[in-house]
Every structure is written in structure tokens, then in C-alpha cells.
Amino acid sequence: APFQPATSLFTRRPVASPTWRERYEALLKSEFWWGLKRQKLTIVHGCQRCSRRTKLQLHHLHYDRRLGAETLADVEIVCATCHPQADVERETEGITETEERQRIGLLRSRWARRRFGNAWKEVPADVVDEEWRQDCGASDDDKWGD
Length: 146
Description:
By secondary structure, this protein is mainly α.
């Protein structure tokens, strides 16, 4: 069966178990990975997002395949500037609105605990909401979970 790394519900990123992390780090240093990057560069010649031709990196489009058995379709070339955004897109791709609301609710709860301390549940919801929106730079039209 293909390698199926455990994923975190919060980020959809593979859980960084020592075994998986060690295998992943080894892959990034392997001749296979560098060969795949060279092959991809013969096709695309630059960042597939902004066309930049410097600081190019090979980016996993997903982690649902066996490490070390990636194909050209499983990766893209991105520059160092675009790579963080590519990671975010991969982690949030396919997330349902319910999952997004759960993620936002969890973030909001963590923020409230830091902001108001242990008594955060006793703070009126409208106060929490207002300060959350101010800290996040959100408008009233944005969907912020309750």
C-alpha cells in the first residue's frame, strides 16, 4: 500500500513523527530528489507561480504518495518567495467550510486564552469578538467562527 502519513486535522500537514521526518529529510537530500528537480527544470525553466528564475525549489503538491516515488506530476518548481504560499495552499486545499470554521474556532479559543487568561470563557462574547476582529484585521463581513 502507498505511504499514507498521519495528518494533523488542524493543518492537514503530515504529523512529524520521527520516522516520517527522518525519511522526508533523507528524501530532500537524495539523488532521486535532485534528479526529479533537474527533470522538472528541463520542462518549466522557472517558478511555476511567478516565473522567477532564482532560488528555485521543488515543492510537493501533496503528501499522499510514497516518499521517494514521486513523479513529475506530484511536484512543482517554485522560488523561495512563492514556496511558503504554496505550502499554505497545499495544507488548506479541499478543506470544507465546516473544517475551516473549526480551525478558526480553535485559533480564536487559543487567542482568547492568551489574551484574557484562564477566565477567558467568562469574558462576554461580544468583547472577545470585537478584540479578535481588531487583532486579526477582520471586517464584520468576514466569517470568523464562534
